[in-house]
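Quick question: what would this complex look like in 3D?
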Amino acid sequence: MLSPFMRGKEAPTAARPERPVVTVRDVAERAGVHPATVSRVLNQATRHLISDATARRVERTAADLGYQANSIARGLRTRRSLTIGVVIPDLTNPIFPPIVRGIEDQLHPLNYTALLTNTDSEPERELRGLQTLAARQVDGFIVTTTEATLPAVGELVSDGVPLVLINRSLGDIAGFGVAPDDRRGAITAVEHLLDLGHESIAHVGGPPQLAPGKERHHGFLEGLADRGLVPDERLVRFADAFTGGAGIAPTQALLDGEVPFTAIFAANDLLALDCIDTLRAAGLDCPRDVSVIGFNDMPFADRFTPPLTTIAFSHYDIGREAARLLMGQLDREDTAPRTLVLPTELVVRGSTAAPRRRRG
Amino acid sequence: MLVNRRVADAAAFAVTPDDRRGAALAVEHLVELGHRRIAHLGGPPELSPAADRRLGFGAAISAAGVDDNPSLVAWAETFAEDAGIAPMHTLLNYGGRFTAIVAANDMLALDCFDALRAAGLSCPSDVSVIGFNDMPFAERIQPPLTTIRHSPYEMGRQAAELLLEQLADPAALPRTVVLSPTLVRRASTSAPPRAR
C-alpha cells in the first residue's frame, strides 16, 4: 500500500506489512448506514442518539471488520494522524468562519480534525504554518496563501501531499482547488451598475498579488469592455489588504482624483464598508450620490446602513467542497487535479441605485 | 482549560467574562433610562454564560426594586442566530408587558429586532434591546446595537497563558480569571415610551 505521501510516485518495492485500513465508511457501507451514524455509535457521548438495534448492528460490523477506533493506535498502524492542516489569513475576517465550519462538518463524520493557523497573509508565516503542521504529521492541507508561497505549496503537491487550495489560483500547478467564480462575479457587479445607468464606475481593488484581487479587477475591466466601454485607469485604486480600514486610502484617492464617478465596485464587502464610510466623511451619501457594490455577502451585510448590495457565494460550500476534494485524495480515489469553481450571485440591496447626477 | 465557561467549584482553570456583572450593567443602563418592565431573552440555561447572565439580570432587577417576574424571562435553545425567534414569540404573546429586553448575546439581540419588527414594534422607540459581547459589526447593524463589551481576544490570550503555566507546573492550583465587561451605548436603547 502506498503511503499518502508517496501517491503518484513509484510504489516501494518492499510493501510494508500492513493490514488494510478499515474506515468508518467501510463499516457504514457494510452495515447499510450513513458514515455519520457509525461515528455517533462509536462515540460514547453520542451513542444514545442512535436506536439500540442500529447501534448494535454497527458495533458488530465494526468488530467483524476489525475497525480500530483509537486514533493514536490507528495512526501508528496506518501512518495517518486523522488531522488536516488548515492555513488561512485571518479567522476574524467574517468570511472564514463559515469556510472553517464547512471544512469541519465534512471532516467530522470521518473522524478527522482540523488544525488551524492564521497567517495575516504574511508569506513567512504561511511557510512556517505549513512546516509546523507538517511536523505534526497532518494527513493533508487546506490552504489560502499569497502568491509568494505558491512555490512551497507546489512542492507539497508534487511530493504527493494531499492539498486543496481555496480562494486562490494554483497557476501552473496541477493541483486541487476550490474558488468562487471571481471574474464572473465582478462582471455581474459591473453589469448591475451599468444597468442602473451608471457610466463612470470606479474600482476599489483588493491587493493585486492575491488571486481574488487580480481576478475581480480583471472581471471589472471585462465587464466594462463587454459593453464597449474603455476603462479609465485613474478610476482604479488598489487596497493593501482585504481587511477593514484598507479601503479608506484608495477611496480617498478616487475622491481626490480629477475623474468624477457615480458608482464604486469594491473587491470585497469590508472594502465596500470603507468606501461608504469615506464617502460619508466627504459629505456624500450612498447610494444617493455614489452607489457601492461589494463582494462576498458577508454575515450581517443585510443589516448594515445601507444594506449592502453585493456578489454572494456560499463560503460554507467552499469549505465543504475543499474538505470533500481532500478526502478524495486521501482515499486515493480522486487523482484528477482540478479547481472547482462555485457560482456567484448578485444580491441587490440598498447601497446601489440609479445615478442622481454626474458628480464633479 | 475552560474558556467562556465556568465550573461551579472552581476545580478547573477557566477564563470568562464577568457574566453576572455584565448582565447587571445592562439592567442598570435600562433602569437609568427609565425602564421598569424589562424582559430577559436568555441563552441555553445549561451553559454557564447563560445561567450567569440570568442570575446577574435577576439580581440587578431586584436591586432596582422591581420584581424579577418569571413571565418576563424566556430561554433560547442555542446562542446562534434565529434561536431567539421562538422565545421572543413566547415573550410577545404570552409574557407580561415590557419596554426593554436584555438579550443574552448579540445574535439573540438581532432576533429581538426581527421579532419586534414582525410584531409591528420598533426598536428603540417601542422596545429597547441590549445585547452581550459587542461582536464585530455590532456598530454597523441597524439600529446600532447597545451591548456589553468584553474581549474575546484577551480571553483567548489569557487562556493560552494559563495553559502554558499548567504545562510548566503540573501542580499549579486551578483558578478562574474573570474579565471585567463594560457597557457600550449605541442606538438600540432609549427611554421607554410614555404610554403603552
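Answer marked as accepted. Chain B touches chain A at residues 110, 136-137, 140-142 (CB under 8 Å).
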